[in-house]
């Protein structure tokens, strides 16, 4: 399917891919809540982790709070594995609970100070303080939820902790490790929402066995129709699709109650640029799989008047049992997307 977020933004529009907030490159831009964080708000209490925010080769995030604050992504697969599956000793668990209580106490004090300060500032600063205070409240709520899970045993898996690739150039290994962790997180019902930012700007020359790649993915995407750059870009993009196919096959192989994990999981894969060579944020190539929908089709929309991607977000929310009539500039649910 070819959709749009907003027809502006260039590279910075990546942070608005799941929020659809307008003008992400503007000096006064303020982001809004991302799709995954809305899911975390509504059903995140059902699992140990309301959401997981991951990244490969960069600190940019797809996940944003209701206050428009970025959720810092985790880029080390080994640390994600430890969070998900490593059970601490009773002493370590007690220390963790103490840290959570201490953190909540500090945030309570900070919140009260923000309230007092609000009385003495102008309207513009009050708005900023309200955003800040909203973020503090979110953190307090998350700490309380984490405390409730601290003494519950973590799930056991049959694989060991991954080894973190030493170089950003080992991009393929990094992506594969994060895909495996996302699959395990869903398979063990540790979370209901995962985002993964694949940062092309932060990725140097990619190492692909048997292939000769001579430039960074970002530079190759600005190919100017040069045949050699297009050839190398095609190799990397085919590598992306092979990694994604492996993820889907792994999810198909995990079965529960007569259904596969892919049947019970919706996967959205896409880019914030429809034409990276021109920095265009229109006609976005978007792949959507799983979730019990009818697939194996190409939904083609008007290339001049793009279909809003947030319509898909509304369909996702409703499929999760979350009441939602709109998301950002949506105009309804995704046309042509049907349940099996």
TrEMBL record:
InterPro entries: DUF1552
Protein name: DUF1552 domain-containing protein
Pfam families named among the record's database cross-references: HXXSHH
Species this protein is from: Limnoglobus roseus
